[in-house]
Design goal:
The complex is a heterodimer of chains A (446) and B (312). Chain A is α/β, with parallel strands linked by helices and 446 residues long. Helix content of chain A is 67%, strand content 6%. Chain B is an alpha/beta fold and 312 residues long. In chain B, the strands form 3 sheets. Chain B has a 6-stranded mixed β-sheet, with helices on both faces. Classes of the chains: A alpha/beta (446), B alpha/beta (312).
């Protein structure tokens, strides 16, 4: 055990001290955060000042649209749309808003632009025009605004799962996306680090140090030491990524995008009272369920300790299982180019689980989801997608989770046992292309 | 005789062939033991069994009288024929790691390594990566890694291959010194010259069987026939005529002009005196010497005997 510990230490330290590890660990979150921030920034923020010329055929109904921080409205009195469009290229106007005479009936107006305005700018203009149109209609039908708000219905259909105990819980499909994210992380990490185990084995075999080491420790200790050492490296990287990425995103959110969540800021932007602004803010939130920046979305509804706990369990289980296979593949070849023939059967189930996990998101309790989350080769990815919707009532049955975890443990024990047999023979075999038949002999006769 | 390592009836079977067939060997302490045999004879299989990398399918091994067990690994040092180290790791770090795997504490390992690094004058390399060293330098590190834990039994598989003559001599001297200090050495090789130079005892493995064993002196004595080489001055035809039926002229080499050297094999009941009596009247004898076969000859003779035996 002591010697296995020495091997784990070496495998861990050698990799953690590598420049490439430090680079990926610290640059990774920066890149992820920068990418996410950029996407959000571009979709939320509009740094171009818009100068909108309004051509109002219902004049003067639209002559008092209030300017916002980056939109300035100008009323084109006595101008027709043809003149206005002509003006667009010979002035600093960025858009022409055309209000047709029949706007109350058609509910359509046109915005001509030189450069595509962002969706948020369009939304602001849309809201303002909509408000005026509503006002026109209210007057036409002689309805008060209060009565209108009373009548206006924002209907919601809640789909609710009914369980034996009579308790009800909402089936949270959105949560499956959190599971999908964790499943994808497991897929990437098993691949990335499983290959590292394989490379490590090939390195030791090809530079022949393995023959010296196994006169001090058992081949099994060497293999397990390597697998555990690399697993710890990957967990280190994962945790650092989580911490760094969330740190950076929090920082970005609390500085650059502060206005987006602040009702006061929204009030200023859209010229409404803070009460209505709070409503708008809530609505923003509802519309953008998967917006990472959203404080009330699935990120906050997710049971993080459970998810991270299960992630670590399934990652370790899956990693032990797959990296044992990767180690066996590494031991059976002389160099990395020879690994091709053995890689496909190893990577196939993993990739299959990953590819099918989007269908599990759609139907987390269907037969595909069930079987993939029970079979140890696919359960690390499939089960994480499923557990995100919850466990027990409203989620997946507890027995399925227990069975899946137990089978994963059994699965990795069996895989490690088989891999160790191949490994033991393979590391001492040189200069010979090994066939599947031979691998089978190594397993059976050892 | 109390031996450090006893190998009793060891066999090893692979799916397609037998690597070792009922091999018995006894290695005396404080000796250099030459394990000889052509490539593929089973030497490496035997060495791996002694190192407990693999187990025997039949038979048993005893280390200092105890059945060979995993904890004996720390008393054994092994230099494989195909050798290497972690290329990207620093020399000192790597040696320390391997020493700890052998069961040394960190401080013990440091002390021992310091001593060896000074002896080989490589203290300055401690923080260099292996791939920054020349091949010869790597070999030195490799040797240190083999002996740093002061093993009682040192197993060297083709230790001189890959070393330049200077380093080979350094290693040879070090092996002899280790024997002086009480280490037993098993030296596996097919290089017969090095065997004659430094081995005390030998065993010959051929086609997975042991076909010869003993001290070099005994083996040579036993294998040397009634053969003599005579240096003389005179007519070599006259010399040949002087020989009688119980003396066979094997070969004659001319040294210069009428000086020759002939090898004669005598019948078992004849002595050198009989030979001298016969030839003195005809030629001027300059010298007479008993012919002892080289290890190479013994090796080849023994192998030929086995092959003939197989054919009969």
């Amino acid at each position: 055990m002591n010697k296995t510990w020495l091997i784990i230490q070496r495998e861990y330290l050698v990799r953690v001290k590598k420049k490439s590890f430090l680079l990926i660990t610290f640059l990774g979150p920066l890149l992820i955060a920068a990418g996410l921030s950029l996407v959000i920034y571009l979709s939320v923020k509009e740094n171009i000042q818009h100068k909108v010329l309004i051509i109002d055929e219902k004049a003067p109904a639209f002559n008092n649209l209030q300017d916002t921080k980056n939109i300035e409205f100008n009323y084109g009195t006595g101008m027709n749309i043809g003149q206005a469009r002509g003006l667009l290229f010979n002035s600093d106007y960025t858009c022409v808003l055309y209000i047709p005479r029949n706007i109350e009936n058609s509910n359509v107006s046109k915005l001509y632009y030189k450069k595509q305005p962002s969706s948020s700018v369009i939304r602001v203009i849309e809201d303002k025009v909509e408000n005026v149109v509503e006002e026109l209609k209210l007057k036409q039908y002689n309805i008060s605004r209060e009565a209108f708000y009373d009548v206006k219905t924002n209907f919601v259909l809640n789909s609710i799962k009914f369980t034996k105990n009579g308790e009800e819980e909402k089936l949270d499909k959105a949560a499956s996306y959190v599971g999908f994210f964790f499943g994808a992380m497991i897929y990437i990490f098993i691949f990335l680090y499983g290959i590292q185990v394989m490379r490590g084995v090939i390195e030791e075999k090809s530079n022949r140090i393995v023959e010296i080491i196994i006169t001090s420790v058992k081949p099994f200790q060497l293999m397990m030491g390597k697998i555990i050492g690399v697993a710890l490296v990957s967990l280190t990287q994962f945790l650092l990524w989580i911490i760094l990425t969330s740190g950076i995103l929090t920082a970005v959110q609390s500085t650059i995008f502060k206005d987006y969540y602040d009702p006061a800021a929204i009030a200023v932007q859209t010229q409404v009272t803070p009460d209505i602004a709070a409503e708008i803010q809530k609505e923003n939130v509802n519309q953008n369920k998967f917006d990472l920046l959203d404080p009330n979305n699935i990120i906050n509804r997710t049971n993080w300790p459970l998810m991270i706990g299960l992630f670590i369990f399934y990652f370790l289980g899956g990693f032990l299982l797959y990296s044992a296979l990767f180690a066996a593949v590494g031991s059976a070849v002389d160099n990395e180019t020879d690994t091709q023939q053995f890689m496909l059967p190893v990577t196939l189930p993993l990739t299959l689980a990953y590819v099918l996990s989007s269908s599990i998101v759609d139907n987390p309790e269907g037969p595909i989801a069930f079987w993939l989350s029970i079979i140890p080769f696919t359960s690390p990815i499939a089960m994480l997608v499923r557990v995100a919707i919850g466990i027990g009532d409203g989620g997946i049955p507890v027995w399925e989770l227990v069975l899946s975890m137990a089978l994963l443990v059994v699965g990795f024990l069996v895989t490690v046992w088989i891999a160790a047999k191949i490994y033991k023979t393979g590391i001492l075999m040189h200069g010979k292309k090994v066939s599947y038949a031979e691998l089978w002999k190594w397993i059976v006769y050892n | 005789m109390n031996s450090i390592l006893d190998i009793k009836g060891v066999s090893k079977f692979y799916t397609s062939h037998t690597a070792l067939d009922q091999v018995d060997l006894s290695i005396s302490p404080n000796k250099i033991f030459g394990l000889l045999g052509p490539n593929g004879a089973g030497k490496t299989s035997l060495i791996r069994i002694i190192n407990q990398i693999t187990g025997p399918d039949e038979g048993a091994l005893f280390f200092n009288g105890e059945p060979l067990q995993i904890h004996h690994q720390k008393n054994i040092g092994y230099l494989p024929e195909e050798r290497g180290l972690y290329k990207k790791m620093k020399v000192g770090e790597q040696a320390l790691y391997l020493a700890q795997l052998k069961g040394m504490s960190k401080s013990e390992a440091m002390a021992s390594l310091k001593e060896w690094f000074e002896k080989f004058e490589i203290s300055g390399w401690w923080n260099k990566r292996i791939d920054e060293l020349s091949k010869g330098m790597q070999q030195k590190v490799q040797f240190i890694v083999t002996v740093m834990h002061r093993p009682q039994l040192l197993i060297l598989d083709e230790p001189f291959s890959g070393f330049d003559p200077i380093n080979a001599k350094l290693i040879r001297d070090e092996i002899l010194k280790l024997r002086e200090e009480g280490t037993t050495v098993i030296l596996s090789t097919h290089n017969m010259e090095s065997v004659e130079e430094i081995c005390d005892d030998i065993a010959l493995i051929y086609q997975s069987k042991k076909i010869l064993e003993g001290s070099i002196r005994d083996v040579k004595e036993a294998r040397s026939g009634n053969e003599f080489s005579v240096t003389y001055q005179g007519d070599h035809m006259a010399f040949a005529k002087a020989l009688w039926i119980d003396a066979e002229l094997k070969e004659t080499k001319t040294i210069i002009n009428n000086k020759h050297c002939s090898t004669i094999k005598l019948a078992d009941n004849k002595t050198p005196n009989d030979l001298l009596n016969a030839i003195i009247p005809h030629v001027n004898v300059l010298g007479l010497e008993k012919v002892t076969p080289s290890m190479n000859d013994i090796f080849i003779d023994r192998v030929n005997e086995i092959n003939q035996g197989n054919h009969e």
